[in-house]
Every structure is written in structure tokens, then in C-alpha cells.
Amino acid sequence: MNPGEVLSALQGVLEDRKHAQADDSYVASLYRRGEDVILKKVGEEAAETLIAAKNPDTGLLVHEVADLWFHTLVLLAHKGLRVEQVTDELARRFGISGHAEKAARPQEEV
């Protein structure tokens, strides 16, 4: 499977899990427990990714990035967003300087 196929297949599974029983599916249990639990899980996985990046075992980093991507995809699905929206945004940025792209963003209010 190529990367796009993996993400597409995973997205389909995540959508299906919205209708699964929480006792039968980890993802369904995340959906049922709500957005705050999903956000906490994304934060935990981000922290674990940072820690793994400091470790000489690159396999650990790959494992943690996979966990982070997975839980981020759960968040997107929970919000009704599709992976294509993210890949479209990345494609839009392709070939644009990171400095120029950031400068062109609307200023966020704090």
C-alpha cells in the first residue's frame, strides 16, 4: 500500500468506528468519551514523540510518530474533517517559502 492508500483506508476505518460500540473499539471509545479526551491523547502522543526524538533508537521515534498521526486522524474524523483537507493544504504550501507562507497567514487574535 502506498502512503495515500494507507491514509485513505485508515480514514475509512475511523469513520466506521463512529458507529461501533465503545466496548468493541478503542477509537469508538475515544469518540464516545469526547473531544477533550481525544485532545489529551494527541497532546500525550506529541510529548512522547518529542521524547522519542531525543532517543538514539529511531524505531521508537517512528512508533511514536505513527501514534501521533493516528490520534491526529482520530481528531480530524471527530471534527468531520478529511485527510484530503490536510493534504490539500500541504499541496497549497508546496513551493512557497515557509517564511512567506507564515507571513501571509491572517493574524490570529489572542
User: On the 0-100 scale, what is the average pLDDT?
Assistant: 93
Q: Assess the beta-strand content as a share of residues.
A: under 5%
CATH homology group of one domain: MazG-like
Which H/E pattern describes the elements? HHHHHH
Oligomeric description of these chains: single chain
The CATH class of one domain is Mainly Alpha
- Give the number of DSSP strands: 0
Structural description of this entry:
By secondary structure, the protein is mainly alpha-helical. It has a domain at 34-89: Helix Hairpins, CATH 1.10.287.1080. The chain contains 6 helices and no strands. The chain has helices at 3-16, 26-33, 35-53, 58-78, 83-93, 98-104. It is globular. It starts with a helix and ends in a 6-residue tail after the last helix.
